[in-house]
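Notes to self after the call with IL:
- keep both proteins in one doc
- input above output, always
- annotate only the second one for now

Protein 1:
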Amino acid sequence: MAKKKFYALIVVLLLVTNIITFTVANVVSVVLPNGKVIVPREEYQLMKEYSKLFDIRQILINRYVDKTDPSKLLDGALKGMASSLGDPYTVYMDKKEFSDFMTQTTGTYGGIGIVVAVDKEDHIVVVSPIKNTPGERAGIKSGDIIVEVNNKKVSGKNLDEAVSIMKGPQGTKVTLTIMRDGKTFTKTITREIIKLETVYEDMLPDKIGYIKITMFDQSTSNDFKSALNKLKSQGMKGLIIDLRDNPGGLLEECVNIANMLLPKGVIVTTKGRIDSQEYYSKGPGLGMPLAVLVNKGSASASEILAGAIKDRKAGVLVGTTTFGKGLVQTVVDFKDGTGLKYTVAKYYTPNGTNIQGKGIEPNYVVELPSDYTPKDTLDLKGDTQLIKAFEIIKREIK
């Protein structure tokens, strides 16, 4: 019996010794008396793999013709790593860029008030001008291609830089070179403080409610709920939601709004390499006729909402085919003022459709007249898309 206990003790000691050895070799860095360091195996492999990066850094710091800023070299290396994927929506953001990005979804910023994306040809395309901003007043339209910013050529490869140049202090000017219908022209626009008011409501004749959503920021679903309740208290019988020129925004806000409109069931599915997720509506749904206005400026989160409503037959879409951005981004805050925005998944409508590069075709395709000029107020005489949606809802509530 004593022998068995002795052998068991030996086995335990061997196991403990092996665990300690493995931990020292693979996890813990050990400083030897001579100043040398034993590093974990994985860390050593990384150091070997990235040794050229460190070599280049030292060469540039020590030998480049002008004095270099090590922090800029690091930012440049990190930006290059993100951009090497060829995905314009995956970007490393330095302190200024990350601050600007966070401001755009949480507050106000100095700029001209346009939202841009990258098309299949690597052009920077205006998704939409934000309502009541310098960009809208200057006549910038969805689909415009931005060729230059302040005489600097831009494309999807330097989207991040182009956006940064367009932003700036209130009262300063920025010049855009724009291509539209094959013709190029310039616009010099004075920057203003852009306030992100994302929800507007009104009551049309016959008790048909109207809610415009300009984008999905952190307060949009609460503002939408307030607008919806206000219209219901006024006796609303049917609803038109206007997602035209809505570039998207926060997925969670979109899902929250969809939960107010859809009966119980799937809203959207996101599928990534690591993680996939289904978002569900708890119901019971809006309980009245619903039409949604969309166009080529409706992108990302607005397409998620429109796609869910169409696929679940909770309402109809009216307008023109949407932008076609079926990718989901997430943001990493490194807590030092910098951040990484990267594509984490593709999203699929309840019918299993990914609309990346294709967009969503409405139930009723309606073009605006070529000479139509948007009005500051709801236009039931010239806005053919709104007129069609109004007629559909009016017919359903009778």
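Protein 2 (the one to annotate):
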Amino acid sequence: MIYPPKPRPGDKVAVLSASAGLPGILPLPFEAGLRALREEFELVPVEFPATRVMGAGARRRADDVNAAFADPSIKAIVASIGGDDQITVTPHLDDAVILANPKPFFGYSDNTNLLVHLWNLGLVAYHGGSVMCQFGRCGGMHPVSADSLRAAMFTSGPYALPQAFSYSDVDLPWDDPASFATAPPEQPCEGWFWHNPGTVVEGRTWGGNLEILSWLLMADRGIQAPAAYDGMVLVIETSEELPSAEEVFRILRNMGERGLLARFPAVLVGRAKAWSLNRRTSPEEKAAYARDQRAAVLKALREYAPAAMAVFDVDLGHTDPQVVIPYGGQVRVDGVARSVTVTY
């Protein structure tokens, strides 16, 4: 795996929508994210043609990705947000162009498609950090997210992931300017939950959003033979669509039946998002949802990877704050010291 060269303050970075063109209909978080890139990160964001076009075709969005990689003045690529159909975009990517011009890519959720594609090309990318969510967060960037993103964007070397003891998964409406005057409400939480600690696992990462992984498995898109994942660390998280515990277990069960789960000696599980604008759960319902999610993952691991070590409630997914995981990069999961260290 190759770590592409990092940008420096003052460099140009591509901002594009390889999934949904939500910047076109929800400009407030997008503009806030562009300001954060310019003012806090001292980068020069460059929008590509389909960035604000909702419903742009797959080939048009792929053209933006190819052009961003091909442009020598662009030093990194940051996804505007996720979506649900990036699986239709990746067949149109120009792998020769990407390999000839490797550069860091940041994104998560539906961008799991691109992360898997780049992994298969041997390029390390970055799971996390979208313009509208982390950079354009209501009330300004979360300090934890900003620190992780800054380290991943500009530096190379080890980075100890922090544990959060308060978080938010409550979304403020993006079409209301008042939402951007205050940060989302946070609630207290416990630190990481460890399953089968006592060992140390070092390996490359693979995984992403669990729902997207299930689609890739169904489409037989970009998934290698099980042996390709031997010794790697599986990273999984779930989205704002709030999949049921039964669905989470079934996806992992199918990965187990395919022979995948047994290949991973360690698993990092993102803190489950348990509230959305379409499903405004009570505190009691949120707690029950999170418990059921953990139980579903543990059930699958007991059946298909009983020796695997797992760390739950790592802030790597759809909750706030969010830490960046180098996708295909090195990670050390130390169950003895109860620490997780990634290499940016």
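Annotation: The mean pLDDT is 98. The chain is about 30% helix and 20% strand.
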